[in-house]
Amino acid sequence: MNKNEGLSAILQSVMRNSANTIKDKYYPHWHLAPVTGLLNDPNGFCFDGEYYHLFYQWNPLSCEHKHKCWGHWRSKDLITWQHQPIALLPNEFYDKDGCYSGSAVFYQGKLTLCYTGNVKFEDGSRTAWQCLAVENQQGGFDKLGPVLGLPEGYSGHVRDPKIWQYNDVWYMVLGAQNLDKQGKVLLYRASHLYQWQLVGELAGSYLGGLADAGYMWECPDLFELDERFILLICPQGIKREQQRFLNSHSSAYLIGDFDYSTLQFQHGDLIELDAGFEFYAPQTTFANGRRLLFGWMGVPDGEEMYQPTIANGWIHQMTCPRELHVKEGKLYQQPVKELQQLRQNPAYWQGIADDAPTINEFSIELELQLFGSLTIHFSDTLSLIIENEQALLKRRSAKNGEWQSRFWSGDIKHLQILCDSSSVEIFFNHGMGVMSSRFFPLEKQIITFSGKDVIKLTTWQLTDALPS
Ligand code: FRU
């Protein structure tokens, strides 16, 4: 697309659809969502000392996975966000089929984006370029073009650069697929952002003690946290197990030790990052001493195209921002403390779950202490059943109405649940486990409780916080 034509088509699409989007009963009250069209991965998450920046994969023209641009929000507090000029449009020969995911760094004093230019050919094959763009005076970004082509021995599926600096050296991890259709993470290094040297495969299918772990690994993110190293990864084609890796594609992590002198990563087995129905392509940043994460509350290639919001011209939302920690060899995720600013009208209740009051709205936070089993019903569409050291999340499929299940195992004593118009994020035992899911109730928006055991329940209404 040519830049002027592209911008005018986007403007028209926003003018035509944004009113429908915002008045949709499923549109979030405080989660980030597209003003129109399709949103997927968080990109370029960073902090400039004053503002957090969050870019996102955005198709402003329709609810399909096409025409990927980078939208841009910024915020001083991770709660109130402002729309910024659209950062990237797929309008060059090297990114014509999408400005795909990537990251942002400060380079020579300027916010610099590193993203994948995706190029498809008529025979169905594709290539990918890793590209740079640098901020300009108008709040937009000037493209600097490709700095890295396809490495030898890999298919056209090489994408999603996450870059960082350590001791004056730049590093990049890239998601990749080799010619035997095995998913890998490639590690590169550089003394400046324009010339990258391949170090090798950092992790992947048939590496580091893993067996077949999928045909493509997307959206890698490697970072040090609490004296360990975490590699976040989205393996595609991983084998479904009875209670794990049940989504069409999974989001997982490897925990281990990375040595900057040998550039080797020793790690354990793949662990699912979020056990809910919708969570994918998370990205982190390090800001003010904290490792923060946003995820996409969606999953590609599953039932996404049956979501009812498409009728109103929009689809998908982000998760809430989360803070990460490592405890006893596991990654913990908790909502950032800033989200407590949304809390209003606290209410406290204690007793047998069967007697608990009905809650008549969804933009709400619940905190629960449990002393046994409990079921929470979110209208007629989603239920959380906790018993026998297991959480079972059941949801009616938007495709055919059948009940589907997701699982998290552990002795659950504490629950924190963040609800919005069509989403829940359920945190078990202060972040030991998480389930993120969208849901679209046909009936009234109510939350009810059942069970014979005692619960202690605190609720807060959450105030609206839409980007301006
Ligand atoms: C993950 C992903 C990335 C890609 C982007 C395209 O959801 O497939 O690998 O860069 O989405 O929108």
Give a brief rundown of this model:
It comes from Proteus vulgaris. By secondary structure, the chain is mainly β. It is built from 1 helix and 33 strands.
Describe this structure in words.
This protein has one helix at 3-23; strands at 37-47, 52-59, 69-75, 81-83, 99-107, 110-120, 126-135, 141-148, 154-166, 169-178, 183-190, 197-204, 216-225, 228-236, 252-259, 264-267, 271-272, 280-287, 290-296, 314-315, 322-327, 330-335, 343-352, 364-370, 374-378, 382-387, 390-396, 403-409, 414-420, 423-428, 433-438, 447-450, 454-462. Helices cover 4% and strands 52% of the residues. By secondary structure, it is mainly β. The protein folds into 2 domains: 3-335, Glycosyl hydrolase domain, family 43 (Tachylectin-2, Chain A, 5 Propeller), CATH 2.115.10; 337-462, Exo-inulinase, domain 1 (Jelly Rolls). The longest helix has 21 residues, at 3-23. It has 1 helix and 33 strands. The strands form 7 sheets. The chain has a 6-stranded antiparallel beta sheet, with no helix packed on it. Strands 4-3-2-1-20 form a 5-stranded mixed beta sheet, with helices on one face. Beta-D-fructofuranose (FRU) is lined by residues 40-41, 57, 68, 98, 100-101, 116, 159-160, 218-219, 280-281, 300. Residues 412-460 form the Glycosyl hydrolase family 32 C-terminal domain. Belongs to the glycosyl hydrolase 32 family. Keywords: Carbohydrate metabolism, Cytoplasm, Glycosidase, Hydrolase. Enables the bacterium to metabolize sucrose as a sole carbon source.
